[in-house]
Structure formats: C-alpha cells, structure tokens
Amino acid sequence: MGKQVEAHDEAEVSTKQRYTENDKSAKEFQVSSDGFIPVDQLNEFIEGTIRSKIEGGSKSSLTYAKPYTQRIDNMKMLMGYQPPKFH
Question: For the chain, which residues make up each domain, given as ranges?
C-alpha cells in the first residue's frame, strides 16, 4: 500500500509542476482590456520557445506529462483483456 501512495504522490507532484509552469508563462503576458496581447510579447514568447526547443534544455511547459509512473506502463495485460466499459 505504501508504494501506491508514493506513486500517487509522484503523479500529483508532476501534475502540480506542469500547472505552475503553465501559470508562469501565462502571467508573463500583459493582456489589454480588449483581450489582445502585444505583438512584441508574442514574438519574445515564440523566440524563447524556439530557443528552448533547439537547446533541448528542460522539459517544455507544453510537453505532455503522464499522470502515472513508468511502472504502470510496464504492467502486462492478459491476452484478450478487455477493460471494463463505464456507462
């Protein structure tokens, strides 16, 4: 049972990190009362995103993070297993 709690905690932490990264990038924009973002801010955001992709640094905030650990991916299913259908 302790391992299940740890796995849940790991997934929760990675999800929280992903949301805080997204919040940071969203707060950098200064949106006008009309809902527009200045072009220079968009250019800076795009340039920064491209630089981070080229440099291959840390994970991008737009990268998908699974809400579960690698251990779940490694689980084997029986031949012909059909998951239950929820209605």
Answer: 2-57
What pTM was computed for the model? 0.34
Beta-carbon contacts of residue 49 (< 8 Å; ≥ 6 apart): 60, 62
In angstroms, how far is CA 83 from the centroid of its own chain? Answer: 26
Q: How many CA atoms lie within 13 A of 31 on its CB side?
A: 7
Encoded tokens for 25: 């990038």
Q: What is the pLDDT of residues 33-73, one digit of tens each?
A: 888 888 899 999 999 888 888 887 555 556 777 888 888 88
Gap between the Cα atoms of 16 and 12, Å rounded: 6
Report the chain's terminal Cα–Cα distance, integer Å.
29
